[in-house]
Amino acid sequence: VLSRELSLIQIKNIIYNIKNKNIIGPSGNLMKIEIFCHGALCMAISGKCYLSLHSYNSSANRGSCKQNCRKKYTLIDKENGFYIDVDNEYLMSSKDLCTINFLDKIIDTGISLLKIEGRARSPEYVANTTSCYREAIDYILNNKKITKSKINFWFKKLNSVYNRGFYSGYYL
After folding, report:
1. What does the pLDDT look like over 27-57, one tens digit per residue?
2. In angstroms, rounded to a whole number, what is the distance separating the alpha carbons of residues 154 and 99?
3. Contact yes or no for 103/171 (Cβ under 8 A)
4. Are 78 and 65 spatial neighbours (Cβ–Cβ below 8 Å)?
5. pTM here?
6. What residues does 39 pair with on adjacent strands?
7. How far is CA 156 from the centre of its chain?
């Protein structure tokens, strides 16, 4: 899975080079490239989060993130004892990645696989999100152009399950 910090231009360049240089994977076929298309964004650089390991001895880099960055915190001024509850906000948490509104551009890169971050999510979340992206992919492959009404429909569907607000990430 490629890093979430790459742009679509960089991803397209990687895929171009795989095809141009005939880079073969273990299967004997051209390497397949996968990117995240939806879900939690790490507040650290992908693969470099050590908060979970330090706090809970549970490595986020091995799929066991305890999501420290998504917890609520109280800030304490050690000099004067004042504290601030960060009310209804998350101090370090970023929004969730959502690419539904430019999924056509992602498909145009030649990407092989799309990954939806769904670890520790409810069955409702997984079913809703995967069905939404499946519908969008099929629509794009059959119609080539996404309409504003379709995007609004998919956003409404994605907003019906837990999220922290949506962000396009670094892709655009």
Report:
1. 999 999 999 999 987 766 666 677 777 778 8
2. 11
3. no
4. no
5. 0.79
6. 97
7. 18
